[in-house]
Every structure is written in structure tokens, then in C-alpha cells.
């Protein structure tokens, strides 16, 4: 495999929306659309058939005449604000390189191969993650929420899609047939220090933790900051602060059970220096590898929010925003990845993903697997995200070999 080609394309796509602060290709933004045009030209140059669906997912097919089910691979190229250069993009370029190699070398396959470049994997712009793969898999339960979602500048998803040349109200046309794909395989940068700590270049992913997201509203009482005695206050921010610490302590107890909770955002009202906060709205991200454990953690947080608010003679309300199912990946695809590592003599471990991926949704319609590549920085969603060239090469080799095995 020509890994220098992978490095070259990574450099080119990273120049689109890339600054010293990181990558900026938010879903349906101008930079995102430019990067997708770059990919379409690249796909065309390689000589693959490609199409876009009504949401902007790109599909590039290599078919040697077979009418069998498709073996698919891919990832995403949209980013968080000031994101890393490998998150998603490494999987797209490595997948394209593998298909390019198979095509050029005329390597024998019995199933067509397809690259999928998912749209809107990151939730950064509109608050909903893995949207492109959800649509492909027919998971349209959040249609109304999607329709109403807006970015930080007040631009709705509906409008952003229209500006980019798509019609939100046609997305149901992009649901694929349940039997279209035989397998799906995604390569992705490790978004933790797991592989670095284990000193191995790649990992076989056995499962993906799912996010459950909630909004907790604390109803205190706004009051004058100078004339209201401390003992008489129902300070919503103080209550929220106690709850944040409680959530941290609850999560620490769940470390061994592979579940975690994070308060990532908080809004205060009326948000004035000389007013005791009357309302606090917290956004909590709960993740775990087992559905029962996620529900347990959610229940404890719900109970704690009520108890802490009651202590201040205030009240709280908790609203479920979204809930995903954890995804197990112990199947033919993971076994194949492991076999490829062994045959190529590339050291590996088994791991789980704490972050969500498009693979979670593809697993609703086909058997899936994931390959992680070592992140020496241990940091993701950040400009300092780093992979060694030799690890990129090892990951690409495993991907190529596993795709060949799965498509024969």
C-alpha cells in the first residue's frame, strides 16, 4: 500500500479549514462543503462510481462485476471547532487508499467495496451526533428535534442544509435497504491514551459506549446580591455546583463498570454580577458500555439533583434529551481484524470506545467492526491530536487486509 499517498491526502484535506488552532469543518459549513468537493474529485480521479444522498453522505463504489452484498468502510470529515486533523479523516483517507490499492492491483474480491463518507458525525454545530449514519440506518426518531435545532449563530439545520444545496425534508429518502451491506468496517484514531499506555499501534474495538444526554434545570430564586442574606438565598448556581461535584463523585464509583458522566455546559439566569442566580441549566453527558449501568447512573443523578435542591428549599427538573444504545462488536468482523493483525505481525490489544461513532448506527443494519490507531498525544478534538507515520501505515495495512478477507 502506498502510505505516502495517505499522508499527502491528509495534508491536502487538513488545509481546508485548518489553522494553527486546529481543524474547522463544521457540518454543512463552507469548509465542510469544500472538503467534500475535494474528496469527490479524488474519488473520481481513482475511477470509482460515487453518489451523494439527500443528506450529503457520499458513497464511492468499487465493483468488479459482483452482485453480492456490499462490504463498506469509511468515517467522517466534519470536525468540532478547532479539532484534530485525524479524527474521522484518517478513516476516510485510509479506507479510500485500501480500495484504491485493491482496484489498482486487481486483488480478488467477491463482494463490491464501498467507501462511505458520513455527514454530520460531530454534534458540535447542531447538538446531534452521527446524523448521517442514523439516517442511513433509518433511525429518524429525532426528526422534529433535528428540524428545530440551531447552531450558536441561530442558523437552523434546515437552513444550513438548504444553503449547502440539500433539502432537509427529503432525508427519509436516504434510508438504505436492510440487506444492502454484508459488513461495515471503520478505522479511527484512538481518542484516549489506552493504546499509548499499552504501547501498541492498533486495537480491535469490542464495543462502543453510548451517550445518554440530559438537561437538569435548577429553579432557585433571583435576588439582590447586596441586600439578600446568605442564609436566605436559593442560589441556583450554588445548588448546581454541589450537583456537579456529586455527579463527579458518583461517576468515580462507576469507573470499574465502564460508565462515566460529564457536566459539559451550564447556563445561568439572569447571569448578572449583582444578582443571585435564580435559574441554572446544566447539560449532562452520561456514557457507558452497558445499558443497565447507564440507567443506574442516570437514576442516581436524578435522585441527587432532587435531594440537593430540596436542601436549599428549591426545586429541580430533569429532561432526557437523547438516549443511544451501547454497541457490541464481537462478531465476524472483529475476528477478521484480529486475524489480520496476527498475520501481519502487528501488535494489538482489544479495547472499547468511550466515544460514539457512526459504526454504532451501521450496526443496526449489518455486522460491524472498528480498528483504532494509536494516538501518542492521548488528546482528541484538539489541534495536538498526534499519530506517528508508522502507526498510520500499520493501521492502513490492517484495514486493507481485513477488507480483502471480508470481501472474498
Structural topology:
Blueprint: H1 3-14, E1 18-19, E2 22-23, H2 30-46, E3 49-52, E4 58-62, E5 70-76, H3 89-104, E6 113-118, H4 131-136, H5 143-148, H6 157-164, E7 181-189, H7 194-198, E8 202-208, E9 210-219, E10 223-224, H8 236-253, E11 259-269, E12 275-276, E13 279-288, H9 291-311, E14 315-323, E15 327-328, H10 332-344, E16 348-353, H11 359-362, E17 367-373, H12 389-407
Parallel strand pairs: 5-6, 5-7, 7-17, 8-16
Antiparallel strand pairs: 1-2, 3-4, 4-6, 8-15, 8-17, 9-13, 9-14, 10-12, 11-13
How would you describe this structure to a colleague?
By secondary structure, this protein is of the alpha+beta class. The protein contains twelve helices and 17 strands. The strands form four sheets. Strands 3, 4, 5, 6, 7, 8, 15, 16 and 17 form a nine-stranded mixed beta sheet that branches. A four-stranded antiparallel beta sheet has the order 11-13-9-14, covered by helices on one side. Strands 1-2 form a two-stranded antiparallel ribbon. The two termini are 19 Å apart.
Amino acid at each position: 500500500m502506498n502510505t505516502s499517498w495517505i499522508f499527502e491526502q491528509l495534508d491536502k484535506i487538513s488545509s481546508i479549514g485548518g489553522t494553527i488552532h486546529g481543524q474547522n469543518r463544521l457540518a454543512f459549513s463552507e469548509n465542510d462543503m469544500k472538503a467534500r468537493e475535494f474528496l469527490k474529485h479524488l474519488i473520481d480521479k481513482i475511477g470509482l462510481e460515487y453518489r451523494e444522498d439527500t443528506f450529503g453522505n457520499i458513497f464511492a463504489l468499487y465493483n468488479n462485476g459482483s452482485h453480492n452484498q456490499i462490504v463498506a468502510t469509511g468515517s467522517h470529515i466534519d470536525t468540532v471547532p478547532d479539532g484534530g486533523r485525524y479524527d474521522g479523516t484518517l478513516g476516510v483517507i485510509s479506507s479510500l487508499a485500501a480500495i484504491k490499492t485493491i482496484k489498482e492491483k486487481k486483488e480478488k474480491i467477491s463482494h463490491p467495496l464501498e467507501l462511505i463518507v458520513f455527514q454530520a458525525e460531530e454534534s458540535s454545530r447542531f447538538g446531534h451526533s452521527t446524523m448521517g449514519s442514523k439516517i442511513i440506518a433509518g433511525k429518524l426518531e429525532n426528526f422534529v428535534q433535528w428540524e428545530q435545532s440551531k447552531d450558536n449563530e441561530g442558523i437552523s439545520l434546515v437552513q444550513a442544509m438548504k444553503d449547502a444545496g440539500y433539502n432537509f425534508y427529503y432525508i427519509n429518502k436516504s434510508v438504505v435497504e436492510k440487506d444492502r451491506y454484508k459488513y461495515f468496517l471503520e478505522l479511527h484514531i484512538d481518542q484516549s491514551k489506552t493504546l499509548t499506555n499499552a504501547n501498541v499501534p492498533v486495537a480491535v474495538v469490542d464495543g462502543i459506549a453510548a451517550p445518554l444526554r440530559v438537561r437538569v434545570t435548577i429553579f432557585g430564586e433571583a435576588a439582590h446580591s447586596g441586600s439578600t442574606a446568605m442564609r436566605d438565598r436559593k442560589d441556583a448556581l450554588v445548588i448546581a455546583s454541589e450537583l456537579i461535584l456529586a455527579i463527579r463523585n458518583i461517576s468515580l464509583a462507576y469507573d470499574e463498570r465502564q460508565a462515566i458522566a460529564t457536566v459539559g455546559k451550564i447556563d445561568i439566569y439572569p447571569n448578572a454580577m449583582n444578582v443571585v442566580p435564580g435559574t441554572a441549566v446544566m447539560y449532562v453527558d452520561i456514557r457507558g458500555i452497558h445499558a443497565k449501568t447507564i440507567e443506574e447512573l442516570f437514576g442516581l443523578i436524578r435522585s441527587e439533583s432532587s435531594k440537593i435542591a430540596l436542601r436549599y428549599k428549591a426545586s429541580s427538573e430533569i429532561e432526557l434529551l437523547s438516549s443511544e444504545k451501547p454497541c457490541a462488536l464481537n462478531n465476524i468482523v472483529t475476528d477478521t481484524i484480529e486475524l489480520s493483525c496476527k498475520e501481519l505481525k502487528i501488535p494489538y490489544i482489544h479495547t472499547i470506545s468511550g466515544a460514539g461513532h457512526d459504526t454504532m448506527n451501521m450496526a443496526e443494519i449489518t455486522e460491524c467492526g472498528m480498528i483504532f490507531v494509536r494516538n501518542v498525544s492521548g488528546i482528541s478534538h484538539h489541534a495536538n491530536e498526534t499519530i506517528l507515520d508508522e502507526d498510520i501505515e500499520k493501521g492502513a495495512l490492517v484495514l486493507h487486509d481485513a477488507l480483502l478477507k471480508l470481501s472474498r
